[in-house]
Please model this.
Amino acid sequence: MEIYIEIMDYKETLNLPKTDFPMKANLPSKEPEILKIWERDDIYRRIRERFADSPKYILHDGPPYANGHIHIGTALNKILKDIVVKIKTMEGYNALYVPGWDCHGLPIEHNVDKELGSRKSKMSKLEIRRLCREYAERFVKIQRDEFKRLGVFGDWERPYLTMDPSYEAIIIREMGRFFGNGGVYRGLKPVRWCHHCKTALAEAEVEYEDHESPSIYVKFEIIEIPQEIRERGYFKEFPKGVHDSPTPGRRHHYLIIWTTTPWTLPANLAIALHPEVMYSEVKVNMGGGGEEVWVMANPLMKDCMAKFGFKKDEDYDGKASDCKFWKHGCYYNINTHKGRDLEGIIYKHPFIDRFSRVILGEHITTETGTGCVHTAPGHGEEDYEIGLKYGLDIYNPVDESGRFLPEVEHFGGMDVFEANKAIIRRLKDDGYLIKEEKIIHSYPNCWRCKNPIILRATSQWFISMTKNDLRGKALRELRKVEWVPRWGEDRIYGMIEKRPDWCISRQRAWGVPIIAFYCRSCGEVLSSKEITDYVADMVEKYGSDIWFEKESDDILPSGTRCSRCHKTDFDKEDDILDVWFESGVSHAALLERNKDMVWPADMYLEGSDQYRGWFNSSLLISVGTREKAPFKTVLTHGYVVDGHGKKMSKSMGNVIAPQEVIDKYGAELLRLWVSSENYREDIRISGEILSHLTEAYKKIRNTLRFMLGNLYDYNPTINKIGYNDLFEIDRLILHRLQVLIRLIREAYNKYEYHLVFHILNNFCAVDLSPFYLDILKDRLYVMGPKSKERLSAQTTIHEILMAIVRLMAPILSFTAEEVWGYLPEASVSELSVHLSQFPSENEDYIDERLKERWDKIISVRREVLKSLEIARAEKMIGSSIEARVDIYSPNSIRELLKDYRDQLSTIFIVSETVLNDGDINETSRNVFKSNEIEGLNILISHADGRKCERCWMYSETVGTDSSHPTVCNRCVSVLSQLKVSA
Model:
């Protein structure tokens, strides 16, 4: 006879997790909903009100160009800034963030030029400026929406724009300060020149790329040796007389130069030698009875002659009569002199009817070349400086389009780069070319059009680095700034230390004009602080277009006269200001004039390229006008590269656009990516990296969801249990939570955001999910809803959840906000997580003795888990709850475990645990011998009894209660409390 027992569904009596917080994030569609809530509730304004009376912290936004959609590097920058601002806010600061845009200059005008094409030539400067303004306005709106989509908080409705009339007026007034202190001058100097864009460029507007250039060695014939040099006994084989005509059998002497810019040879006006370097007279057998003497630096002689295909005559001992094997292709050193002894030698140009002389310069090196340096003061910074010293002409035979002027012999009208081949051919045909090669080297390119640039002397406006000791003051001030990373200080120090005078004029249409006038009668320049301030007032009312709309008479104060000739007719300056000057005054335009801001800024944060850009210009302008740096801390990040560390480029097909990531993964993954990488180095991104981050995000999200799901019936104001009444393992995890809080806040303070990610991820993936929360499930699910065991667990996970959600908010801003909306009733009073503050480390929860005790228990647990895994693999058991664990251990461990005898099965997640005092039969195949804990042996077997239909644990008490014959006594007790009958 068969007996059928009706089994009730005990699942309904368990406290299984309940939450509407979705397991699948679906961030691409969820994030826009959160953005709408933030906008609806005006969260940024509420944050400002919440912290209005708190100490201020100002991260000053470096303005990006409004010239296109944001790219992955821009996204990185804005997210980093947002993380900083949110951290400071949650630390209790009034951390305002006002975004800005750089709206003038070549980046925008270049794109407008491309859109206009040939139509541009028929348009006036004002029409072009109007189109540039419209273009900038369009992309300010586009970028604003793209930045907001990243979850970046800020005063988006009141940004600062460099094209606003009020900002333009400040640019002019700041320029006027330099006019007032004499720091600005107009001069003829070589500047970086883009002949495609037809404008001067600042160093920050130059990019360096590998470039193939011709490398040539050229002979410049010596035609006169000054008498004082001859009297020293030098150049004995040089023919007597001055400017001797070539004669049969004459031994010609040459200075040997090396250059990678043959196109600059038409502008050669000198050859420079180092005064302390030894230079040799090298006799060369040219074959056919012909001999020449070449002059070059002695340290470079051997390598150069080998490169030229000549061998040293080893048998020569100093006298020509002793030369036994003097033949074609041999050379020997006649004499050696210091460079200073050769100053004043006259030579002639190889293809232009011009005579020049040897000069001396400390800038000469013996690392490459010949030590005899071709000098063209109109085409090089060092050449210019030494040219001034020797009174050389600053000669520039190249026009704004990069073509030789018509009067240049042989090459007039040719593009300079195209002329390289023609010049080399001419040198070769005339017998002056010794060697031609090709080299790949780093060469400057225009940042906009990407074409190679040239150095070209033109009349430009400069800020002097020496006037008023600008360089020295800037170097002293930057030492007072905190640079993150630390090496940034040395980097910018070296740049300022070596920086030439700042060329601030540009030959373009779209920008703020340089306020200067020229007397039509005598050419005298009219520029002063008074004039700039006067014009600035007009610009503040009408915008900078007024400069291009009106004539000089309508702009200048009535009665203005030339200080030299006293005439009243003036022409306006056509050049505009360098955009780096415009953005460099942003500290004056925003921080000093916005009542909610403070000067100097607490932080500037940009990419490492801004050491020579915005950091540099901001520092020089601030020091030049206020004698103080505009920032307290400067933080920089690296470039974004692909997964292999290669630079991103469209041609390589490795560009990842922010919108692509957002559409596929959500902006939260971009934020997580930014925080997970060490931004101080180049930052890698790829599909594989994002995929790994997705898994990490899922782990964090699922951990949060688990905690939310187990708090559905928890009210912290009613159900919270005091710390001393919590279970010991709950106190242990709260101890670990305090460590988490301390480590994360320390990492935030040190700007080490990648550590925050790893610390949080590790806490979820190691401390919580596989340990604490896994152990906790039995108490949470099985025990009575209001039992002490369950309330202790709920109190603890509620505290953990409240800490984690706030700690992660600056990084995972969307997810933190989403979690905030699902917290148990009475958990928070703030409308948004971003209106809350970070948790503080609770000293009362720190218990090192507890930690030490549990470290030992956990080490035993790890060994038990290993043994269970082996037992599963050998199919002795299925899940761990089928197991019985017998532990044989040293006395010290056994005594500790005895205190936790009743908890061990829960800790190990097994049905039964037995502590044994005797020795184990180690020959048993079920014994696991620990390699980590000496003397620890673990025996795994199947648990006795039957499986409880409610808690799934195996117990010999199952069936002992007739009311619930399929459950264990523990569950019977809970069911009794719940008043559940069969």
